[in-house]
Task: structure prediction
Amino acid sequence: MNNYFVILAAGKSKRFNKKIPKQFFKYQNKEIIDHSIEKSLSSKLFKKILIVSNNLKHLKKKKYPKSISIIKGGKERSDSSLKALKYLKRYKPKNVFIHDAARPNFSIKLLKNIAKNLKNNKAVVPIISSKDTIKYKTQNQIFNLNRNNLLLTQTPQAFRFKELYKITNNRKNKVTDEATLFINNDFKIKFIPGEKANNKITYIDDIKTPKTFYGLGFDIHKLVKNKKLYLGGVKIPFHSGLEGHSDGDVILHAIIDSILGAIRKKDIGTYFPNTRQFKNIRSPKMLKPIMINLNKSNFFINNLDINLICQKPRVSKYRDKIIKSVSKLTGINENQINLKGKTVEKLGLIGKEKAIACETIISITKYD
Ligand code: ZN
Result:
């Protein structure tokens, strides 16, 4: 196939607010521009890939394969695309794909679909419909536009080289994409479905992804007579209760530590030392301020897994009650909490019903 792929990467990224132009910013482990380069290479649809950029020094350091050429861009996007077409003319291309480096998320499937549609059309442009309601402003009036009639064009856009070259060379006004030129010249365009994920990166916020953290928790308390047993905030009838400065609720203590671990805020002892102030404190009271802080800081708990390690009581008997209580205390949905019971084959202090231990793991995502 006599196809050529042009990547426009000469923009100054004024709205991106970073020192480096956005096309060279790291996104999902590689520079934004490299997503487009790698996908166009692996599609095997192109004889040559041409990068148009004003950062030649940076690009030349990257040692791309021979099928990739790099030329200097122009002042505006339309200047850069004209420069690209003038450069490609010597190869006598049949088709040229024009793509903005700021769209790293298109799929190879989309490239192939464009190529397929080019067989019977001179211009193929992916479009999606608008999610937002848009108004149109003139000098002294604002009009409502019908959302159903609005089409948003994406890149890559593909054209017969000959036609595009002619109208690009003759154009009088600046355009923000090649589809505009085709429409202005009354050429027919085949519109195909674009991809929602193929959005243009304009602001740094467009590529901020939420981060997920994990936290481990562990706790163990001695069982003693004449104390009430609390597990996960539930009072459980038993011959002994857990000894401690507080009510000794190993489940809630392990949960608190796993939350603090995930948000990297030290440990339970830092916030609840063995002082008079916290003597005999109930554990739900310890969990509460931790949860309030967590929710204030835009964290979201994905799931919580609990191992309760004891010879007795039988976890299966209290599982639903404990999960319900933990759900109520943390705000985590019941179906995102799991509780497993582990007996220890009557070994050691836990096996002899002298202690109960608990370990937890939690997954928490931070949204900005
Ligand atoms: Zn404890």
The first helix runs from residue 32 to 43. DSSP finds eleven helices and 19 strands in the chain. The domain at 3-207 is CATH 3.90.550.10 (Spore Coat Polysaccharide Biosynthesis Protein SpsA; Chain A).
